[in-house]
């Protein structure tokens, strides 16, 4: 990794320095200073909010399709590398995991079918990353998801579909990518190939289950709550075989061409994250630069 870029990243706020040291430099930093960063404190407080936080998630009042709520605030904190215990979130994690249905699934939104894994996989993958990957409830969900693969090896939104959905595959792969027994499992090849094929056929205007490869997909955005290039690259980089594929390499090259002296700008932003550099477009974003550097590190 470019030393100049690394030093620039380390000049960022305490939470970013923690992420860089832990994930790029293989150090074992103490999270104490990072969790006391003013922006992180504010984000942590939002997780307690009855309208946007984890209590609202428990009540089924928020959706993963909008930013600035528990789904994506928690996702961001997990991306930094925080454990639930670092932020005193264990009681919330247990409350969520204890809502597991008898079949091992989770229904987190009102009216959402238990076997609709697209949204539940986002949240359970986040919880797994925050220190719960070995929790028996999480493992039971993982096994339930694994057993629900459709005939092409992927996942889909509707029972009548026989082929995988890009968004479902992305979110489920994000979950399975946390486990060593899956990252090299050839039974996931078709799910991975669907994402790569979708990218490779972008000039044809090919849409799969309503998802296409257009301007929004190709914009650098965080958090990528829809179907976007930054999260697709991040998830695929968890699987060593995927990083060797031509489609992955061309996708990463496409992103790398957006850099300015090794630094990246947010191209789409959310007002919910104005306290962070990925919430503005005028200056390069250390966080987005970190995420791309993490993908490059995994893929090297």
Describe this structure in words.
The chain is 51% helix and 0% strand. The longest helix is centred in the middle third of the chain and has 16 residues, at 117-132. 40% of the residues are buried. It is mainly alpha-helical and 300 residues long. The protein has a domain at 185-300. It is built from 17 helices and no strands. It starts with a helix and ends with a helix. It is globular and about 45 Å long. The model has no long low-confidence stretch (mean pLDDT 92).
Q: How do the helices and strands follow one another from N- to C-terminus?
A: HHHHHHHHHHHHHHHHH
Beginning-to-end CA distance, first to last residue:
10 Å
Helix content: 40-55%
Uncertain residue segments: none
Main beta sheet strand tally, sense and closure = none
The number of distinct helices, counting runs of at least 4 residues, comes to: 17
List the helices and strands and how they pair.
Elements: H1 3-10, H2 14-24, H3 32-35, H4 38-46, H5 54-58, H6 70-80, H7 90-97, H8 117-132, H9 136-147, H10 166-176, H11 180-183, H12 189-200, H13 215-218, H14 229-236, H15 240-243, H16 246-256, H17 286-299
Helix pairs in contact: 2-17, 6-8, 8-10, 10-12, 10-14, 14-16
């Amino acid at each position: 990794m470019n030393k100049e870029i690394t030093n620039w990243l380390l000049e960022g706020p305490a939470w970013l320095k923690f992420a860089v040291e832990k994930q790029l430099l293989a150090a074992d930093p103490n999270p104490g200073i990072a969790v006391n960063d003013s922006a992180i404190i504010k984000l942590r407080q939002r997780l307690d909010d009855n309208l946007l936080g984890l209590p609202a998630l428990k009540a089924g009042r928020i959706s993963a399709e909008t930013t600035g709520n528990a789904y994506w605030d928690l996702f961001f904190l997990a991306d930094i590398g925080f454990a639930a215990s670092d932020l005193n979130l264990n009681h919330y994690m247990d409350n969520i995991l204890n809502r597991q249905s008898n079949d091992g699934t989770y229904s987190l939104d009102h009216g959402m079918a238990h076997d609709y894994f697209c949204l539940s996989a986002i949240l359970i993958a986040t919880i797994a990353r925050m220190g719960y990957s070995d929790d028996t409830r999480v493992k039971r969900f993982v096994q339930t998801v694994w057993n629900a693969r459709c005939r092409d090896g992927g996942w889909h939104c509707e029972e009548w579909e026989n082929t995988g959905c890009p968004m479902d595959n992305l979110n489920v792969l994000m979950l399975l990518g946390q486990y060593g027994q899956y990252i090299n499992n050839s039974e996931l090849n078709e799910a991975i190939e669907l994402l790569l094929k979708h990218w490779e056929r972008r000039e044809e205007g090919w849409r799969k289950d309503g998802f296409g490869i257009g301007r929004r997909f190709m914009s650098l955005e965080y958090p990528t709550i829809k179907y976007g290039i930054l999260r697709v690259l991040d998830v695929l980089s968890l699987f060593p075989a995927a990083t060797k594929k031509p489609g992955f390499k061309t996708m990463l090259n496409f992103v790398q061409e957006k850099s300015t002296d090794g630094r990246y700008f947010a191209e789409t932003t959310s007002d919910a994250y104005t306290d962070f550099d990925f919430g503005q477009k005028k200056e390069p974003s250390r966080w987005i630069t970190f995420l791309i550097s993490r993908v490059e590190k995994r893929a090297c």
